Amino acid sequence: MRKMFFCLMAMMGVLTLSAQSIYDFTVKDDAGKDVSLAEYKGKVLLIVNTATRCGFTPQYKELEALYEKYSKDGLEILDFPCNQFGEQAPGSIQEIHQFCTANFDIQFPQFDKIEVNGANEHPLYTWLKAQKGFGGFDTNDQRGKFMDDMLRKRDADFDKKSDIKWNFTKFLISRDGRVLKRYEPTDKISDIEADMQMEVNPVLSNMMARRSIRKYLDKPVEHEKLEVIVKCGINAPSGGNRQPWIIRVVEDQKLIADVTEVFKQQNPEQVTRDKDFKNMFRNAPNLICVCTPANGGGELDAGLLGENMMLAAQSMGLGTCCLGGPVRFLLSNEKCKFFLDRLDIPADYKLNYILAVGYPDEQPDAKPRDASKVKYIK
User: Fold this and answer.
1) Taking burial as the number of CB atoms within 10 A of a residue's CB, which of 143, 216, 234, 340 is the most buried?
2) In this structure, are residues 321 and 214 in contact, taking their beta carbons and an 8 Å threshold?
3) What percent of the chain has pLDDT over 70?
């Protein structure tokens, strides 16, 4: 019997790990009915494990305020009561729901009670914890220090584990199903709201989702989409409306392959090291070459142009990477003259940078940004 139990647990672990996204999971609602999380595709989700007799229970009021403010913009809060922390979620799901509606008038959906840690934890939470582990409590905050001290007395290494630490731990999920961030119960709701705004606002979420892509599918971008990207680019701000740029869009796959052969001859070791090497432009199937006046000037306008194009591509499900290295190679190697000649760049202009464009074959995580470099002068 014991052997069978461990076999079942192993099978559940394999099934959870094989899940590709949050939409692969099914949960039970407050009536015991199965609900596929695929029903929430395209929504921004805040998933939270709750309790009705916890010091953090008043967060229900703050969560409901968020829901009322942003549900029209696509926010859904998914509430999973859990009785594992101090047995602070007693009673049936119906009793819990009655308490929450009577005391906090919650409108967001509540699901059946679950466990979030241990042998009987719901597979959804196994997956969530694998995506975003425990990042620690803010010990500069009084509540954060209290939680850290309390849990460390029980387990000196509690912070080394990804398990859920207490009631009202939250996970923010993007519209395309990625786990963006994990919040501990002591994190401020105002901080969660700031992150949430980046997701429910389509312009902000597009900006926050953009990454430099270095792996692309073997699929050229449709000409019509390239036209849209460039149109967005040339509508970027330009000082005095001078528009001091010239743009060349390369769709000729043979031209990219031919100049890559020159690169491969000059850099055999680099090509050998990169097992995924396809071409010298981060393997992208299309290029947008941006040129500025040879005697200087226009760089700021060209930067604004490029950012518009990268964001436009992101909004269309395309990836981009701004390249400088290939430009230096092209300009310094006489054997690449044929490539530059095809670009037909006027003599009074120079190639400034190249945007690699294509359908992404990776989903890189965001790299940290140093907010300490920002100072507000009031």
Assistant:
1) 216
2) yes
3) 95
Q: Two tokens at 96?
A: 């819990």
Q: Which two tokens stand for residue 78?
A: 């998914």
Q: Which two tokens stand for residue 92?
A: 């049936």
User: How many helices and strands, by DSSP H and E, does the chain display?
Assistant: 13, 10
For residues 214 and 353, the answer to whether their CB atoms sit within 8 Å is: no
Identify whether 7 is a catalytic site residue.
no
Q: Which of the residues 7, 54, 289, 336 is marked catalytic? A: 54
Kindly tell me if the per-residue pLDDT of 118 is higher than 60. Answer: yes
Q: Token pair of 130, please?
A: 């694998």
Cβ atoms of 347 and 374 within 8 Å: the answer is no
Task: Label residue 68 exposed, middle or buried (CB < 10 Å: 0-12, 13-18, 19+).
Answer: middle
In contact, 172 and 43? CB cutoff 8 Å: no
Altogether, the residues listed in the chain come to a count of 378
Q: 26-28 and 44-50: which strand pairing? A: unpaired
- Please state the pTM of the whole predicted model: 0.73
Q: How wide is the angle at C-alpha 118 spanned by C-alphas 11 and 126, nearest 5°? A: 60
DSSP 8-state class, residue 111? B
Is 244 in contact with 292 (CB distance < 8 Å)?
yes
CB atoms within 10 A of CB 231: 12
Per-residue DSSP letters for 336-354? GHHHHHHHT--TTEEEEEE
pLDDT above 90 (res 193): yes
